[in-house]
Amino acid sequence: MDALHYFAMSWLSPELLALTALGTFLGIYVGAIPGLSVTMAVSILISFTFSWDVNYALCLMVGVYMGGVYGGSRTAILLNIPGAPSAIATALDGYPLAKKGLAGEAIGLSTVMSVVGGFVGIIVLAIAAPPISEFAITFQPRDYMLLGILGIMLVGSLSGSSLARGIFAGALGLLIGTVGLDPMTAEERFTFGVVELWDGINPVAVMIGMFGISEALHQLHHMNKAVVKQKISRIIPKWSDVKKYMPLSLQTSFIGVIVGALPGTGGDIAALMAYDHAKRVTKNPKVPFGEGAKEGLIAPEAANNAAVGGAYIPMLTLGIPGDAVTAVFIGALFIHGLNPGPLLLIEQPHMFWFTVGNLTLANIFVLIFGLTGIRLFSKIVECPKGVLIPLIFLLSIVGAYAINNAITDIWWMLAFGVFGYFMRLYGFPVGPVILGVILSSLTDENWRRAILTERGSVSDLFINMLQSPLSAVLFSVIVLILVSKTPIWKKVFKPKIKS
Amino acid sequence: MKKTTITLLAALSLTSTLSFADYPTKDIQGMIQWGAGGSTDTVMRSIAPHVEKELGADLILTNKTGGVGAIATKYVNAKKADGYTLLMGAENPQMYKILGLSNIDYSDMIAINVLARGTPIIVANNDAPFNTMQEFIDYTKANPGKVKIGSTGKGGLTSIVLAMLDSQVKLDYISIPYNGDGPALTAVQGGAIDVMPAVLGATIEQIKAGRMKAISLVDVKANKLLPNVAPITDALPGMKSYLPWGPFFGVFVKKGTPDDAVEKLQAAFQKAAFNPDFVDLMQKRGFTIMNISGEEANYFLEAYRSTSSWLVHDAGFSKFSPEKFGIRKP
C-alpha cells in the first residue's frame, strides 16, 4: 500500500508531474545534440535545483535522463550523427531509412520500442533489483575482460561486406582508445608529451567526426543527388509491426537491463550487443542490415532505454552507480542530505518506489513527446543541401566543443571526419572504429587487472576462468560464436539445417 | 591618432580598475578537477550556492577532468589572473612536481580556501580472514603474494597510505589499480580485491550496512562515526610521525590575481563554509571542516606536500627528488 502511495506521488502532484514532463522534454533535445551529454545536463541541474525540495529536483533530473537516452536516436536517424554513443547502432539502420524517405516511420517505431525497452527496465528494477545487483557486483575483472572481447567480436556484425576491412577499422579504434595515460601505471602512451592527450581522444569526438562530418562531406561529394521527399503519412507504427517486432525488442531489452546494471558497462555497449543480437536472430530481414532494416533500428533503441532501469538497480540497492548518470544522481542525493548507499532502502524506503513511479511517468512522457513533432523533424532531412550541410557542420562543431569545453576536441572531430570520409569512400565501415574506441579501455584495463590478480600467470588465469561458472559461461559463448563463424562449422551444420 | 589611442588606453585602464573595484562584475567560472558525481564534484557543487549568495554573482561549474587534475590546473593558470576562473580541486597537485606530471602545484597559486580534510580508512571484503590491522599484517606475512589490494594510481591516497605502511612493515601483496575509489570499492564488495585504503566518506555507508568491514582508521585517534574501529597507531605506533594526514578539497586562483578579488573570494568562501547545511553535509560523510585561507592554508598545504612527497620518494615511485623543488624534509 505504501509502495503504491510513493509510486503515484509524482503522478498526483501537479508540480511533480509538470517537472517530470519538462525534464523529459528538455532531455530529448539535450540528448539529440551530440556532445551535450545527459551526464552534463544532470550535473548542471544539481546546482540549479540545490535549494529545491529533493523530490522536485529528482523529478526534473529523472525526466532529463529518460528523455536524453531516447533523444540520442533523433539526430542519429535524421542526420547520421548519433546524439550519444548509445545511439551509434541506431544510426546504422535508422539513417538509411531516413534516406529512403521513411524518417517519420523510423522515429515513430524507435519511439515506441524505446518506451517498451524503458518499461522492461523499470519492471525489472521494481521486481528484481536486489538479486540482480548482487549478481552484478560479482563480475570480476576477467569477466569484464571477456565481455570486452565479446564486444570486440561485434565487429563481425558492423563490418558490412568485407570482414577484413571491418577488422582493420576495429583495430584502428582499439589503437585510438589506447592513447593517453596508461590507466594502470600512468605511463604516457602515444601522447608525444602533450598534456591535452593525457586523457586520451574522446570517443564522442571520434564518433561525431566519423558519422557527422564524414556524412556532410559525403553529401558534398554527391551534390547532384536529389533530396528525398519524406513520407509523413504514417508516424505511429502499425499495430502489426509492433506485434511482429515485440519479441525482438523484449529480448534486446533484457540485454539492456543486464548490461546496464553492471557497474562497468552502460547503454552504449548494451545497444551494440543488442544490434548484434538482432542480426543474429533475424534470419531473413526484409531489408538487409545496414540498408534500413527495422530490426537493426529497434534492437539498440529498446536496449539503451532498458539500460536506464538497469543502471538504477545497483544505485538504489547498493549505492553503486550503474553508469555515469547514476553516479551524478548519487552525488545529488548526497547534496540533498540523503545517504545514498546500501542503507538507502532501509532509511528512505520511499525513495525506491518514488523513483520507480517517476521513471514510469517519464517513460510515458517520452512516448508523448517522442510521437509529437515528428512531421516537423522529418522536414530537416528535406532541407536543401545548402542548408543541411552547414547545419551538420554547426551541430558537430558545437557538439565536439561541448564535450569538455576544449578546442582540441573540435580539431580531433574534424580530423576524424575527414578520415572517416575517406574510409567510406574506399569501402571501410566506420562503425567498428567507434566500437574499438569504446571497448579499448574496458578490455585493456580488465585484462591487466585480471593478469595482475594471477601474478602474471596465463595458465592460472585460464584455470580460474574455467572454475568460475560466470567466467566459464562467458568464455564458452565467445568460443561458440567464434567457431560458429568458421567455414568448418558452416560446412558441417549448414546443409543439415537446410535439408 | 596618437591622442585617440592614449584616450582609449586611459579609458580602458579606467574601466578595468573600475571593474576590479566592483568585483565580481560577471559570472565566475569554477573548474572542477574531477568528474561529475565524484567526491570533489559533490563538495564543490554543495558549497557553490552558498558562495553565490555571498558574492552576488553566478558561479558556473565545469568538470574539466584528465591527467589526475593536471589539465584543469594548467587551464586555470593559462587564464587571466582576474579572479574569474577558480580551480576547485583535491590534494593531487601537491604531488605533480615529484611525479613529473606538471610544474605547477598549489604553492604556485593563491589559496582561497582549504575547505575540508578527509580521514583515510582501510577496508576489507567481508570474507577476508582478518579483522584488525595486526591480523591483516600477520595474515599477509604468512601468505606472501596472496592478498589483493586495490589502488588508484601513483600519488593518490591509496599509494600514500601504502607508502606509510611500507615504511613501518614490509609486506608482499598484489596491487591492482582502479580508476578511482568508486570502482575499487565495488570490487572490494564483489571480492575482486581483498583490501582497499580509501577516504572514510566513501566507505561509511557500506561499512554501516555491513557490506564491507573496516580494518583500521589511518589516524591517531578513533572517529566519532566509527567508534569501534581502532586507529592504525595502535598496531603501528611509528605511523604517528605522518598523522594526522588526509586528502583535502580546496579552491585556488592564479598567482597575480588582484588583492581585492582574492579578499572577496576568501571572505565569501569562508562564510559559505560555515553554513550549517554545508557543515552538516561534510560531517555526515566523515570530513573534517578546515575552512582556512591565507597563511594558515599555506602552512597546511606545505606540510601536506612535504610529508607526502618524501613518503612517495622514499617508497621509490617518485620521478624526481623533492629536493629538486626545495620541498623540505618533514
TrEMBL record, chain A:
Source species, domain of life: Bacteria
TM stretches of this protein: 16-42, 54-72, 106-132, 144-177, 324-346, 352-374, 386-404, 410-440, 461-483
InterPro entries recorded: DUF112_TM (IPR002823)
Domain DUF112: 17-435
Keywords: Membrane, Transmembrane, Transmembrane helix
Protein name per Swiss-Prot or TrEMBL: C4-dicarboxylate ABC transporter permease
TrEMBL record, chain B:
The keyword Signal is annotated on this UniProt entry: yes
Originating organism: Marinomonas profundimaris
Family the UniProt entry places it in: Belongs to the UPF0065 (bug) family.
Highest taxon in the source lineage: Bacteria
Signal peptide boundaries: 1-21
Key word Signal present: yes
Pfam families associated with the record: TctC (PF03401)
Keyword vocabulary terms for this entry: Signal
UniProt cross-references to Gene3D superfamilies, sorted A to Z: Bordetella uptake gene, domain 1 (3.40.190.150), Periplasmic binding protein-like II (3.40.190.10)
Name of the protein described by the UniProt record: Tricarboxylate transport protein TctC
Stored InterPro entries: BUG (IPR005064), Bug_dom1 (IPR042100)
SUPFAM superfamilies (alphabetical): Periplasmic binding protein-like II
